[in-house]
Amino acid sequence: MCGICGYLNGPGLRPADATLTRMTDSIAHRGPDADGAWRDEACGIALGHRRLAIVELSPLGAQPMQSSSGRWVLSYNGEVYNFRSLGDDLRALGHNFRGSSDTEVMLAAIEQWGVVAAARRFVGIFAFALWDRREHQLHLVRDHLGVKPLYYGTAGGTLVFGSELKALVAYAGFDRTIDRGALALLLRHNCIPSPYTIYRDAKKLPPGSILTIDADGRHQEPVAYWSARAVAEHGARNPLSLSDLEATDALEAKLRDAIGLQMMADVPLGAFLSGGVDSSTVVALMQAQSSRPVRTFSIGFPDVRYDEADAARAVAAHLGTDHTELYVTPDDALALIPQLPRYFDEPFSDSSQLPTMLVSQLARKHVTVSLSGDGGDELFAGYNRHVLAEKLWQRMRMLPRPMRRLAASAIRAVPPDAWERGVGATGLWRSQQVGSAGIGAKLHKMAGLLDSAGPEDMYARLTSHWSDPASIVLGAVEPPTLISDRAAWASLPSFTEVMMYLDLVTYLPDDILVKVDRASMAYALEARVPLLDHRVAEFAWQLPLHQKLRNGVGKWVLREVLYRHVPRALIDRPKKGFAVPIDAWLRGPLREWAEALLDPSLLARDGIFDPAPIRARWKAHLSGAADLHYELWDVLMFQAWHHDTGFNT
Q: How confident is the model over 491-545, as pLDDT tens digits?
């Protein structure tokens, strides 16, 4: 992994010589091994690069890199895992290579097949800036599923871009005006969905797309070279007719290939291991292809509601990995909070960012590359909503909506901790999908669903924290997203599959992958996600739903692959997720910090939020009348970012 940045000037504009240096320095944590720059003053183009050397450690892998013809110049973040096979194809067509880097192969592929066709051939995770010296065009390209980030925007008449927003901010004259509509989306989704950013003048490049900019800065909207919607709809129209055994065999073969490719590195490599289905599958297939014990890493918490270290340890022992675990205290996690605005660039309020940073920090002490299990839930129906939502709606719809509203009011009238003591003690609320922890919060969340007008409304509520965030952010108009624009939804046979699709194109790239990228790159650790090989995604969408979701259990076929390597008894347990007890911390060790950021006079002086509803929720949370830590954490992460003088002013 690396960091990229640069700018393309409008006619007659020339920035100071130090501009590109400031931009690359701002993302030095992404690439501590080397920096590079390439400029063409006559065309007003500058490309910057920070290198984390993974493959071809010599200067022959340095960037920005020019093609052998001199036409193309590339600054690139990521890995193209199939570069060796592509290199063989290109040698057969007459290309020669000086070194052994994937960057050089990418340039030859672009030379041979063009930008769009080459991008379609790349198997990997990447975001790159490509300057065409002949046509005087800049191409910004992002990988199929949005694993690696790429931002772009304007500063005066100059187009600026980078792996992180801080590279854009480093360009003198970049306007830091907050996009209040994007802030409303943060309060709804705990992240800011593509293409929006917290800044009015910056955007995220959507996954699987190419943005082409002419020398004078003119450009159209990004164009897709790969479409998750087209893949999902094609899979639904052309399902594979495989027996359960054939489907399991085929999936294991594809995963072995993807994981084998991603074990390629010239530096130490390991994997995150939580003990859940996804990470255990990745580690099992790594170990099956390795001649030595795979390095695995997990963290544990004293709070048993969130601790999965025992499960990870058991899986590691069975597979024979070289396992490292670290039990962290609340103080370890709390110490990271002041650093979050600097690493996440824009407000981001998925609190699992904290354990993700801690396990990345642990892994980086031993390896430079770590494989992760992200993507299994979205592709194989692993979230509780995939398992329960459609079934719940079929039952709910039989009751008139007024009766459901009364039931919701009755549930909310009992504080979460009272539900915890009452229902939890009976042991009745236990299943593979929903453990006994947090029963009160889950019941309150269910109460919020009882008033749903339909399954689409239910999904919107399941993916929302604040139900009307534009009323909290002063002057905000909530912009459309892929979730709110139903015309953008894939046409699929069931609403469960629609939810899986929406999670794949929204929650995954805008939340999960942002979290993993920032948390790992904060420590110059490359995180790879083999379940998100786009070929695996294409195969998964061709499997019928009953081979993903069966008898109330998600990820059925993925589990069948795993059970060939790890006993069921080590895997079949309630899903915990990867979280920390923010609800309790806000009432305890974080209370003073939160109170300062939620001070009504500060909120009023900032003029961004309506203080009254925020203060009301803060008081209700402190009293235990409700668990509102999700809504409060959204506001607190913005406030922490907004008042962090080290980054945003």
A: 999 999 999 999 999 999 999 999 999 999 999 999 999 999 999 999 999 999 9
How many Å apart are CA 460 and CA 464, to the nearest integer?
6
pLDDT in tens, 267-278: 999 999 999 999
CB 31 within 8 A of CB 524: yes
Cα gap 617→626, rounded to integer Å? 8
Average pLDDT of the residues of the chain:
91
Q: Are 106 and 120 spatial neighbours (Cβ–Cβ below 8 Å)?
A: no
Give the span between the Cα atoms of 49 and 337, in whole angstroms.
Answer: 28
pLDDT at 332: 86
Residues 6+ apart with CB under 8 A from 9: 15, 44, 45, 157, 158, 217
User: Per the omega criterion (within 30 degrees of 0), is the bond before 64 cis?
Assistant: yes
Give the CA count within 13 Å in the CB-facing half-sphere of 481: 26
For 137-148, the pLDDT digits (tens) are 999 999 999 999
Reduce the DSSP state of residue 266 to 3 states and report it: coil
Residue 310 to residues 313, 315, 323, 357, Cα–Cα distance (Å)? 5, 9, 12, 20
Rounded distance, CA 282 to CA 261, Å? 12
Specify whether the backbone of 475 is left (phi greater than 0), alpha (psi in -120 to 50) or beta. left
Taking CA atoms, 236 is separated from 497, 520, 556, in Å, by 9, 35, 18
Structure token pair of residue 445: 């969340």
Tokens read off for 584: 């309790």
- Non-local CB neighbours of 297 within 8 Å, separated by 6+ positions: 270, 271, 272, 273, 323, 324, 325, 359, 362, 363, 366, 370
| pLDDT computed for residue 576 by the predictor | 62
Contact 346, 198 (CB under 8 A): yes
Tell me: the pLDDT tens digits for 161-185? 999 999 999 999 899 999 999 999 9
Token pair, residue 126, equals 């990447």
How far is it, in rounded angstroms, from Cα 54 to Cα 61? Answer: 10
The two three-digit tokens of residue 369, written as one number: 């590359």
Nearest by Cα to 497 from 200, 236, 210: 236
How would DSSP label each residue in 603-630? HHHHTSB-HHHHHHHHHHHHHTS---HH
